[in-house]
Design goal:
TERB1, Leucine-rich Repeat Variant, mainly alpha, ARM-like, 629 residues, ARM-type_fold, TERB1 protein, 3 strands
């Protein structure tokens, strides 16, 4: 079994001291058994094999034995945490330093030594402390600077490839020295080689170079504001942005460049995550637009998309110019698409983060984009631009509505010629009912002001139960209800439903007092309708939601026989309560009728006056706007 084999192999190592080849073969067999086998590694430690190999690596005069012994130590340490704790001593780090500084040590021996350092510090805060206290981390940084030359990057050459393998191992070891757990002291030491890392990135965009450097930089700056600021100060963020542009240009023909661009993106995010204000550096490279292009790539997996969106979020968190760039490149619709199509919770959170960053700035930035006015700092000047642009839109729609009104008036005049107007008389007994329902001037003024206030008031869902129009003949209470609309044109189209109106016997009277009173009613009605409809036509310029008014009449029924006698005195508008109309079709229907009751006659005359007032106001405002221009 495994234990027997390990005992025999240990004995072989002890009795083959003069045969380095046999020792090497025994060591290879041992690490093949212990690799990813924690129990076997633990048993080998218990029988003293771990310490024997440690001594063998230091005492052997044969290079191949040293290399094999160090590699076997690394495999066993990596497989079992107890073996890691046993060998994690300052003495072992000092021995490894000797291997690294010895001029007789070959590249492969140095590589094996670095590998042992790597497994000693991985997920081990004690190892991270020892690597710093013994000065081993300084030696690793020296290897990072000197092992590989930027002018000799031919990996097909055997010697160059060996140097690259050592350099790559050094990068991995430095990553373990600063991360998992995070070690700020080691991060502060490792940032000294950032200028060299920047030089590498500027001279080479090969994956073999970019990936190790991005991993090292990303972990070194992670959650460390001091190191992040230092990296930006030496131009590191600029260099990463340039590398991203280069990779995005190559991504059209190379999928590997797309994947490498994601790696660079993660590093960018790590550099600005703790201080989003540093994202302003990226504006001159249009990094946000490059990230949006990268996000549109179909080959990305969910994890890569999350990294890209988070980077966009940190770029736009406090930087207005990056937010502007996001809007210019249709970034917000793309974020909304991610929210609607993705089922991944983390991806949705990342997209929501971006949307929240730009929520308050969207309207202001949209104006600045269209007007090319990013340099506007005066709040009053900005508000004037908002109003000016809004007025242009409103008057354009106003002209369309005026054109429609002219067509309606033309049709109305033609129908008025064909139809006659019948004046009906009522009984003097209706005078008291008229007085009861009459609205005095003070009440009308109060009602008009209240209605005007409610249309423009901040309570968007408020309702008005005030009576605006008191019909002279058949009274029916009106209830105003506010509904939302996003289009000021639609806000002018008011939908009305008319119900059957029943009248009692004492209202079937005629009198001269009623006629004189109806003139006052018409005047109040015209004022009220003009104010209401004009407010809807020109809403508050600071609001984006416009409100229209629907009126609904409460049905009233009467069982008296006298009500049936009124059928002949009611116009088509009174008897069409069960049908569905809007303001346009209902007006046409009333105009086509040869007879209108007193109530609907007032409504038609009020509409006609409203149109006249509308044309006058439009002409006046056009004149003022031309003067303003």
């Amino acid at each position: 079994d495994v234990k027997t084999d390990l005992n025999l192999l240990l004995e072989c190592l002890k009795y083959q001291m003069d045969c380095p080849v046999s020792q090497k073969e025994a060591l290879i067999t041992i690490y093949s058994i212990c690799q990813q086998n924690s129990e076997a590694s633990e048993y080998f430690r218990e029988i003293g094999g771990l310490m024997f190999i440690n001594d063998l690596a230091k005492s052997s005069v044969h290079c191949i034995v040293k290399e094999a012994a160090l590699f076997t130590l690394g495999v066993i340490i990596e497989s079992n945490v107890y073996c890691q704790q046993t060998l994690c001593t300052s003495a072992l780090f000092e021995d490894l330093i000797l291997f690294l500084i010895n001029k007789d040590s070959g590249v492969n021996l140095k590589r094996m030594s670095v590998y042992v350092i790597l497994v000693l510090v991985s997920n081990n805060s004690n190892g991270q402390t020892y690597v710093r206290d013994t000065g081993c981390i300084g030696l690793l940084l020296q290897l990072f600077r000197t092992t590989l030359s930027t002018s000799k990057m031919n990996l097909s050459d055997e010697n160059t490839n060996q140097c690259y393998q050592l350099w790559s191992s050094v990068c991995s070891t430095l990553c373990a020295c600063v991360n998992n757990p995070q070690n700020e002291d080691n991060q502060n030491i490792c940032c000294s080689v950032f200028p060299y890392a920047q030089e590498w990135l500027e001279s080479c965009t090969e994956p073999e170079i970019v990936r190790p450097i991005c991993s090292f930089v990303g972990l070194t700056v992670a959650n460390n504001s001091y190191v992040q600021k230092y990296f930006v100060s030496v131009g590191g963020l600029d260099t990463l942005a340039k590398v991203l542009i280069k990779l995005m240009q190559d991504s059209c023909t190379s999928q590997s460049s797309t994947k490498l661009a994601v790696v660079v993106t993660k590093t960018l995010d790590a550099c600005i995550a703790n201080d989003s204000a540093m994202g302003v550096v990226l504006t001159k490279y249009h990094t946000v637009s490059e990230l949006l292009k990268l996000l549109s790539n179909d080959t990305l997996d969910t994890g890569e998309k999350i990294s890209i969106i988070l980077t966009i979020g940190h770029c736009t968190e406090v930087c207005e110019e990056n937010q502007c760039e996001l809007l210019q490149n249709n970034g917000l619709p793309l974020m909304i698409q991610v929210l609607t199509e993705s089922q991944d919770e983390e991806l949705n959170k990342a997209a929501t983060f971006v949307l929240q960053n730009c929520k308050q700035m969207t309207e202001q930035l949209s104006l600045k984009i269209n007007g090319n006015s990013l340099n506007v700092n005066n709040a009053e000047e900005l508000d004037m631009q908002v109003r000016k642009r809004s007025l242009q839109d409103y008057w354009k729609k106003a002209k369309e509505i005026l054109h429609r009104i002219k067509l309606i008036e033309k049709e109305h005049d033609e129908e008025r010629v064909r139809g006659g107007i019948c004046v009906n008389s009522s009984s003097e007994d209706n005078i008291e009912a008229s007085k009861y329902h009459e609205v005095n001037p003070a009440d009308r003024k109060t009602c008009t002001e209240r209605t005007h206030k409610e249309v423009h008031g901040p309570q968007l869902t408020s309702k008005s139960d005030d009576q605006v129009l008191a019909p002279p003949v058949c009274y029916s209470p009106l209830k105003n209800k506010i509904i939302n609309t996003m289009d000021p044109v639609n806000a002018c189209a008011r939908q009305s439903e008319q119900s059957n109106i029943s009248c009692s016997v004492n209202e079937l009277q005629t009198g001269s007092v009623l006629q004189s009173r109806s003139i006052n009613e018409k005047t109040a009605c015209v004022k009220n309708l003009s104010i209401l409809q004009w407010d809807f036509f020109l809403p508050n310029l600071d609001q984006h939601s416009f409100y229209s008014e629907r009126t609904r009449e409460e049905k009233s029924t009467s069982t008296t026989s006298a009500c049936h006698k009124m059928t002949d005195l009611r116009c088509i508008g009174c008897t069409a309560g069960g049908l569905s109309f809007d303001s346009k079709t209902f007006t046409k229907m009333l105009q086509s009728c040869s007879y209108q009751c007193e109530r609907h006659k007032v409504i038609l005359e009020a509409e006609e006056r409203y149109r006249k007032e509308l044309r006058k106001s439009a002409l006046c405002n056009n004149t003022r706007y031309a003067t303003y221009e």
